[in-house]
Amino acid sequence: MTLSGVGFLQNFPKAFLRLATSNERTKKIRWGKVVFHVLEVAAIIFHICFLWERFVRPHWSDYGKQRRVEAGTIVRGMFACVVPGILCFLSIFYCILHSWLNAWAEILTFGDRLFYEDWWTSSYFSRYYRRWNRVVHSWLRDHIYVPLAPSLGRPVSTFIVFAVSAVAHEVVFALSLGFFYPVILVMFGVIGLLMVPLTATGGRRYPNMYNVLMWFLFFIGNGLLMCLYSMEYFARKNCPPSKDDSFFIPKSWSCIEVILKPGWTFHNP
């Protein structure tokens, strides 16, 4: 192989990346696709509201009206939130990263539509994070990780990237719900970061098994998110006002006493 051929092969990935991320524009706006994606967004919002009203609200709407609650009641509510939690997780992914971004890309005649990749086939978390949201991943990589990695090293730079992303997610949750309850901050910035090295080796050796493990963690994690945020929301709504109420102090920790009855059993309703 000639030297020119070797140089072409070495520079091919970079050239392909520049081509994929170029600011190419489409020739016209297909308003039919815009309307279709906007209708998808509206349908998904209705779907999430239905999941909330039908499967989540009945289990937690009375939380905080009584000063004591049995641990079994909370456990049943947690299990009830698993399926709605994963459905909301998938619905929000499709709503934002497919329908919403494709609608605006069509309006702005933006040619590059690679907003996500096949994250659902991932067997380790580092690949999942890269494929889940290509838009945010590319921004964090180019503006935080790449500038910091030469001086701080890869582990510290990775930690900073996760910290910035986790704080941004928590700010969105706090402003939307009206209270600070750092569940997503802990799950994403702590547990999610720890899962990157824990699944790296095993995910490459046993991809099928670790893909199932990741989906199991998605089910449990999103169920806990749905459960804990619902508990805090209704605790702030139902518990009597107090002079110690604060935007930053969770009310579900102090307003309600969780009691554990000896010999209790779990019964599926």
TrEMBL record:
Gene Ontology CC annotation, any one: endoplasmic reticulum membrane
Membrane topology value: Multi-pass membrane protein
Domain of life: Eukaryota
InterPro entries: MBOAT_fam, Oat_ACAT_DAG_ARE
GO biological processes: cholesterol metabolic process
Places the protein is found: Endoplasmic reticulum membrane
Record keywords, A-Z: Acyltransferase, Endoplasmic reticulum, Membrane, Transferase, Transmembrane, Transmembrane helix
Ranges annotated as spanning the membrane: 34-52, 73-101, 179-200, 212-231
Organism (species): Arctia plantaginis
The protein, known as: Uncharacterized protein
Family: Belongs to the membrane-bound acyltransferase family. Sterol o-acyltransferase subfamily.
GO MF term list: O-acyltransferase activity
Pfam families: MBOAT
